[in-house]
Design goal:
Structural class: alpha+beta
Helix content: 10-25%
Radius of gyration: 27 Å
Strand content: 25-35%
Shape: globular
Distance between the termini: 50 Å
Largest sheet: 9 strands, mixed
Number of helices: 14
Length: about 725
């Protein structure tokens, strides 16, 4: 906690006196908490206060947060929204400079607070913690703070249309006849509003959010098509996948309706596929008030490209008002650039970039539609790509804290999702956290943070001691789910029972454990700490090879007693140096034969493994191949952001925006252009370009802490330009 608050936590009186529900548990344990009241779900609370300033001021700072979230307005102008979700014992608040929004005389701060009430990946909700705290300091003096002088009211226009995704969000059937207009303005009469309850025993522990609030801006459709079958209706195309809220204005008699359908793609007849593949049915009804100009204001965000606007007869719309209020983590379009002589490669880079852009919200999300959750394993790929695309490592750092602080309290072996109250676990994901911590340090140079996180990483590793047998291998990890890959049809026939996890010892979990051990060794080296486990790693490697190496084929089996050698059971040992020369050749041969017979998630590690084995031509070939399991399939199927799986039809609930498919971004930089940090923070780098003969030109730039790295390749010649002070070691 880094701020002393004089403000009080205020809340809707319906929540006052309710004991918070304890939602934390291990995934396979039954829920112990009481059932959440249905009438307290999906609640929109409006809060406001007015105050008088003698003059305008240069120094006016507002600190604010809300549970679950807020949208902030000052004198009728939207200022921002937040916070990044967090558990109540580590909850974030935001800081705003309000000087540009204030004026002499009467001012108003107006806040729209939303409490969802569901247990899901998108919010830390369902626990009865609801409300708001805010404090405004002008010229160093507190002039506004939340207390019983504020006024609150319920925004009653938001009727539930049911939930979509995995209880991810409520559809919003909006009735403008119930909408309070003008409440964000100083002149609004709030004398009929209620007095909030002050929560004297509120247990939120508040911390300054270490990342900026999401970027919010409006874009217009690139195409508007009239609908002959619905006079006055329109089909809108926003040019690509977007995350945000559709907005428009209309006029009609009281009670007339407009149906809004959103989707990522079109049906064969040209209509919007609003019953989306990803288990979201984006169909909502807007009821008009009869005023001269009604405005549609959705609250929660969706992921979509197309919108269908269907009107009742007599309703009039203003096509100039159609737009999307886009939201995502701030993304500097100039931070990175990539262009090559291969149009397909350029399109692959583009869909991966856009997938990362829209999949980065207050935290990284597995998809911005069905789940909106931050998954630890997904982050291995997303953080790597996001770091190169933006040069902004704050969200990466925060993601490490999310799992170190928020998930480790439930299980020192880490949960798979954080933040959020959805209790899910995967051994595979937990063991990737040390690898992410190491990569963050190499990209950032933040060794102070590394030292702070070392005890967390050590506790994580100790958690798995209870599964060790005499030879050091992990066995019978049955109380914590093992993923291997997803969806299940992408596991290449992996021969071990996973749902539920069976008794025994299998390859992938142990390969991940060894990878985590290697990362811990490198972390200790960077910190000049002793490495007590070098002998343990050596004996573990011997035990792994003894248990899983088929000496007849020189391939690794999926599990003890299995004769099946999947792609997964061989790519991970290759990546983590569990192979020797003879079996290394056999494993590369297996990958060359099986290619990407896996999901897009594991494809990242397959490509990394090939690069580690020096097979860069094959890396490039697989990235740009015409196989079904390839990024070219996404391009051919009209992707504007990278998909959850290789093809739309390879999973029953495919998300068409899934940033875990962004592996080509870091692979092209590190393995094809051959640029890698050699020391923390890029004070030195290695340069070993391995551009394939089929590629004539590349132009690339990205940011590191000291400036911009530029790479070009043409006519067989590679050139590198780095910021002053960066030492370059060119490798053959």
């Amino acid at each position: 906690m880094d701020k002393r608050w004089s403000a009080h936590w205020i809340m809707d009186e319906d929540f006052a006196g309710l004991k918070p529900i304890d939602v934390y548990r291990k995934q396979l344990e039954p829920s112990q908490g009481p059932k959440h009241r249905d009438d307290l779900k999906n609640r929109h609370m409006l809060a406001r206060t007015t105050f008088v300033l003698d003059d305008s001021y240069e120094n006016a700072v507002l600190h604010i947060t809300a549970d679950d979230c807020y949208k902030l307005y000052v004198n009728g102008t939207f200022v921002g929204q937040g916070p990044a979700q967090g558990n109540h014992y580590h909850y974030y608040y935001n800081r705003y400079d309000l000087a540009p929004f204030l004026h002499k005389g009467v001012n108003v701060i107006a806040v729209h607070v939303y409490y969802q009430g569901l247990i899901c990946r998108a919010f830390n909700s369902g626990d009865y913690r609801q409300g708001l705290i805010a404090e405004l300091d002008v010229q160093g003096r507190t002039v506004v703070k939340t207390d019983r002088t504020w006024k609150i009211e319920t925004a009653r226009e938001y009727a539930s249309g049911g939930t979509v995704g995995y209880d991810t969000q409520y559809l919003e059937h909006i009735d403008n006849r119930l909408k309070l207009t003008g409440w964000r303005e100083p002149s609004y009469d709030d004398s009929g509003w209620r007095t909030p309850a002050e929560h004297w025993s509120d247990d939120h522990r508040l911390f300054a959010q270490p990342t900026p609030t999401v970027s919010v801006y409006e874009i217009q459709p690139v195409q508007i098509v009239s609908l002959p079958e619905n006079p006055g209706g329109f089909l809108l195309d926003f040019g690509g996948e977007r995350t945000g809220q559709f907005r428009m204005k209309a006029r009609g008699t009281p009670g007339q309706t407009i149906e809004i359908r959103c989707g990522e793609e079109l049906e064969d007849d040209g209509s919007v596929r609003y019953k989306m593949r990803c288990n979201c049915t984006y169909r909502e009804v807007w009821t008009l008030s009869g005023s001269d100009e009604d405005e549609l204001e959705f609250y929660d965000y969706k992921a979509f490209r197309y919108v269908e606007v269907l009107l009742e007869a007599g309703v009039q719309t203003d096509p100039d008002s159609f737009g999307v209020i886009v939201r995502h983590y701030p993304f500097d379009e100039e931070a990175s650039r990539f262009e090559s002589s291969d149009p397909l490669l350029d399109r692959i880079w583009e869909i991966c970039r856009e997938g990362v852009k829209y999949g980065s919200q207050e935290n990284y999300v597995d998809c911005p539609s069905r789940e909106k959750g931050q998954y630890l394993g997904d982050n291995t790929i997303i953080t790597h790509a996001h770091a190169y695309l933006t040069g902004d490592l704050r969200l990466f750092r925060k993601s490490l804290i999310d799992f170190a602080v928020l998930s480790s309290r439930t299980c020192s072996g880490f949960m798979a999702v954080a933040p959020g109250h959805f209790m899910q676990e995967f051994v595979d994901y937990s063991l990737q956290w040390p690898l992410q911590l190491l990569r963050y340090t190499m990209l950032s140079g933040d060794t102070d943070f590394l030292r702070e996180m070392l005890p967390v990483a050590e506790r994580l590793m100790r958690y798995y001691d209870k599964y060790k047998r005499e030879d050091g291998l992990l066995a019978n990890v049955t109380d914590k789910p093992n993923l291997v890959d997803w969806p299940t049809n992408m596991r290449d026939g992996y021969d071990f029972p996973l749902e539920p996890v069976g008794e025994g010892c299998h390859n992938v979990v142990n390969a991940w454990y060894y990878g985590a051990m290697l990362a811990m060794s490198e972390i200790r080296q960077l910190l000049n700490e002793p490495d007590p486990e070098s002998g343990v790693r050596s004996s573990f490697k011997n035990a792994f090879r003894q248990a899983f190496l088929n000496t007849e084929t020189n391939l690794f089996s999926d599990a003890e007693g299995s004769l099946h050698s999947s792609l997964h059971a061989n790519a991970l040992p290759l990546l983590f140096r569990l192979t020797e020369e003879r079996d290394r050749r056999a494993v590369v041969g297996l990958i060359r034969e099986k290619r990407l017979s896996c999901g897009v998630y594991i494809a990242y590690f397959v490509l990394q493994a090939l690069a580690a084995a020096g097979e860069h031509e094959l890396v490039y070939e697989l990235i740009t191949s015409d196989d079904l399991h390839s990024w070219s399939t996404m391009v051919k199927e009209g992707a504007t952001t990278c998909f959850e799986v290789w093809s739309k039809d390879l999973k029953r609930n495919t998300s068409l925006c899934h940033p875990w498919a962004s592996a080509p971004i870091p692979l092209l930089i590190e393995e094809i252009a051959g640029i890698k940090p050699a020391s923390p923070g890029w004070t030195s780098l290695t340069f070993a370009p391995r551009v394939p003969a089929s590629l004539d030109k590349i132009s690339l730039q990205f940011r590191i802490p000291s400036g911009t790295v530029r790479f070009s390749y043409a006519d067989g010649k590679a050139e590198l330009d780095v910021p002053d002070g960066v030492r370059v070691e060119r490798l053959s």
